[in-house]
Amino acid sequence: MVSEASGSPVLAFEDVHLSFGAVKAVNGVSFTVNEDELFAVIGPNGAGKTSIFNVLSGVYRPQQGRVVLEGRDLLGMRPPAIARLGVARTFQNIELFANLTVVDNLMLGRHQHLRYGTLAALLWVGRARGQEVEHRRRVEEIVEFLELEQWRKMPVGLLPYGVQKRVELGRALAMEPRLLLLDEPVAGMNLEETEDMARYILDIRDELRIPMIMVEHDMGLVMDIADRVMVVDFGTPVAIGTPAEVQRNPDVIRAYLGGDPDVEAAVEAGVEAAIAAEDEGASA
Question: Kind of pairing, strands 228-233 and 38-42?
Answer without folding.
Answer: parallel
